[in-house]
């Protein structure tokens, strides 16, 4: 899209995109630090991740303030309007992702007080996939790359499948040795948080599609088997 | 949705200048259609074709088919005065006659012989002022001059004058460009009311106004219709890059 007649309008749109991109980068960093803290049983790092979440929250506030200002002063239309609304929505998705990363770090602080358990590696494997997806969707946002966004969107099913497998693994592990139930429960919540990060990344892909095309991504959202159903069927 | 007005391959020339190029457009009944586009794009020219105001411009030539309820507007048998009674117009600057408020509104019904007696004329004047949302403000001073009203009131007086002859279509050429925001809001509210009884075509340079008052929007550029669609679609998801560029302030 060519430039606006009013140049400061372009500068504001760029500024808005930059804040959201910065939030995306921070959410990625928070997630990877949380995983490192979990893998290495590093409580200092975990504590830094917990504290670092406030910075993402601040940026979300900044996006909110800035979008309201732009809506009031520029009265944006069409593609500009969609870009501004998308920035607002994506920033709140990223803020949630930051919360989940901080929660993973918080739980790893508890795990560090307990003897190590095997399924940690399963959680980390799930998280690696979600990390890839998060990185791709943030890149897709910065590059306005719809193909990449659609690929992210299609990978949500993969996350759900791995999560379902991990859920079973954790159940089995806890049944075999009830002393691992505390650690296992925390890992279960961590896995859920990470799976939710994948969902939010998928949401970002959907918002980006709307921003670029003005239409929702075609077709049904990919969905793995629901855990609740899995659970009942397994009984 | 029935088309009140249809334009097919309409071309307008001002002397050598080709002002309107092969325009196809349907104006739906009881809707507000907004015509937008940069200055000189042909939107006002198109508006003036509908009640043959271009006949008054020397050297102007109109080709193609324009119909109102299926009747050819440019048929030789058409009485232009009658046509303009069916298709009223409100202009950019309020232009009340230098007469009383009452006479401004009564003028049209009088020359068209629409009232049998004074009582009926009173009725028409009152109803028209009421419909134009002006009655409350002027009912105690109908004998005062229309030109003594505020700008916004004058414009609503012109709208009352236009609807007094019970037209089917009202053309508005930037009706709010000389008005303050409150007077503008009143006229916009009025446009929304009027569409129940009339078909409205409005030319406006305010994107926000087009978005607020119209159901359909047509974007003109260099004499052609680039895109026409539901207003919501045009302003949230235009299909043509020219439309996108214009409404987002990238050219024009």
Structure explained in plain terms:
The complex is a heterodimer of chains A (235) and B (252). Chain A is mainly α and 235 residues long. Chain A has one domain (7-213): Phosphate transport system protein phou homolog 2, domain 2 (Methane Monooxygenase Hydroxylase, Chain G, domain 1, Up-down Bundle), CATH 1.20.58. Chain A is 83% helix and 0% strand. Chain A has 8 helices and no strands. Chain A has helices at residues 7-40, 43-74, 78-111, 120-143, 146-154, 156-176, 181-213, 227-234. In chain A, helix 4 runs antiparallel to helix 6 (156-176) and helix 6 (156-176) runs antiparallel to helix 7. The longest helix of chain A is centred in the first third of the chain and has 34 residues, at 7-40. The radius of gyration of chain A is 19 Å and the shape is elongated. Residues 224-235 of chain A have low confidence and may be disordered. Chain B is of the alpha/beta class. Chain B has a domain at 3-94 and 169-247: Rossmann fold. Chain B is built from 10 helices and 10 strands. Chain B has helices spanning 43-50, 80-86, 101-111, 118-131, 135-138, 151-163, 181-194, 207-213, 231-236, 241-247; strands at residues 3-14, 17-28, 32-36, 60-68, 71-72, 87-90, 169-173, 199-203, 216-221, 224-230. In chain B, the strands form 2 sheets. In chain B, strands 6-7-8-3-9-10 form a 6-stranded mixed sheet, with helices on both faces. In chain B, strands 2-1-4-5 form a 4-stranded antiparallel sheet, with helices on one face. In chain B, helix 3 (101-111) packs across helix 4 (118-131) and helix 3 (101-111) runs parallel beside helix 6 (151-163). Chain B is globular and about 55 Å long. The model of chain B has no long low-confidence stretch (mean pLDDT 94). The interface between A and B is medium-sized, with 17 and 16 residues.
List the helices and strands and how they pair.
The complex is a heterodimer of chains A (235) and B (252).
Chain A: H1 7-40, H2 43-74, H3 78-111, H4 120-143, H5 146-154, H6 156-176, H7 181-213, H8 227-234
Helix pairs in contact in A: 1-2, 1-3, 1-4, 2-3, 3-7, 4-5, 4-6, 4-7, 5-7, 6-7
Chain B: E1 3-14, E2 17-28, E3 32-36, H1 43-50, E4 60-68, E5 71-72, H2 80-86, E6 87-90, H3 101-111, H4 118-131, H5 135-138, H6 151-163, E7 169-173, H7 181-194, E8 199-203, H8 207-213, E9 216-221, E10 224-230, H9 231-236, H10 241-247
Parallel strand pairs in B: 3-8, 3-9, 6-7, 7-8
Antiparallel strand pairs in B: 1-2, 1-4, 4-5, 9-10
């Amino acid at each position: 899209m060519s430039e606006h007649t009013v140049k400061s309008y372009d500068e504001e749109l760029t500024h808005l995109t930059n804040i959201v991109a910065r939030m995306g980068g921070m959410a990625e960093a928070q997630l990877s630090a949380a995983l490192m803290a979990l893998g290495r049983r590093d409580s200092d790092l975990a504590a830094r991740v917990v504290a670092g979440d406030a910075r993402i929250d601040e940026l979300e506030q900044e996006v909110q303030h800035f979008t309201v200002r732009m809506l009031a002063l520029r009265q944006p239309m069409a593609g500009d309007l969609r870009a501004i609304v998308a920035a607002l929505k994506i920033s709140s998705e990223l803020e949630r992702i930051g919360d989940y990363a901080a929660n993973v770090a918080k739980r790893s602080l508890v795990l560090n007080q307990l003897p190590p358990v095997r399924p940690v590696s399963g959680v980390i494997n799930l998280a690696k996939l979600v990390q890839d997806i998060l990185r791709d969707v943030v890149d897709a946002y910065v590059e306005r790359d719809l193909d990449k966004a659609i690929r992210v969107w299609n990978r949500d099913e993969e996350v759900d499948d791995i999560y379902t497998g991990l859920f079973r693994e954790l159940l089995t592990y806890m049944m075999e040795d009830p002393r691992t139930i505390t650690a296992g429960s925390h890992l279960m919540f961590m896995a859920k948080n990470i799976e939710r990060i994948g969902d939010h990344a998928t949401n970002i892909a959907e918002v980006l599609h709307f921003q670029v095309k003005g239409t929702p991504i075609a077709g049904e959202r990919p969905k793995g088997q629901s855990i609740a159903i899995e659970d009942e069927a397994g009984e | 949705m029935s088309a009140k007005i249809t334009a097919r391959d309409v071309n307008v020339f001002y002397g050598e200048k080709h002002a309107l190029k092969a325009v196809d457009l349907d104006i739906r009944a009881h809707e507000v259609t907004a015509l937008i586009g940069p200055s000189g794009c042909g939107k006002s020219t198109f508006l003036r074709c509908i009640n043959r105001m271009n006949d008054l411009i020397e050297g102007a030539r109109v080709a193609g088919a324009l119909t109102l309820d299926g009747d050819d507007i440019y048929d030789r048998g058409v009485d232009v005065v009658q046509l303009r009674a069916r298709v009223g117009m409100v202009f950019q600057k309020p232009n009340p006659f230098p007469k009383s408020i009452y006479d401004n509104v009564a003028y049209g019904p009088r020359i068209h012989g629409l009232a049998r007696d004074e009582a009926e004329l009173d009725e028409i004047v009152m109803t028209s002022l009421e419909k134009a949302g002006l009655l409350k403000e002027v009912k105690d001073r109908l004998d005062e001059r229309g030109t003594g009203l505020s700008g916004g009131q004058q414009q609503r007086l012109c709208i009352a004058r236009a609807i007094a002859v019970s037209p089917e279509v009202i053309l508005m050429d930037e009706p709010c460009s000389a008005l303050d925001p409150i007077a503008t809001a009143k006229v916009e509210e009025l446009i929304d009311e009027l569409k129940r009884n009339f078909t409205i075509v409005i030319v406006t340079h305010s994107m926000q106004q087009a978005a607020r008052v119209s159901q359909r929007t047509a974007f003109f550029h260099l004499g052609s219709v680039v895109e026409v669609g539901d207003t919501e679609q045009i302003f949230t998801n235009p299909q043509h890059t020219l439309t996108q560029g214009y409404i987002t302030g990238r050219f024009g």
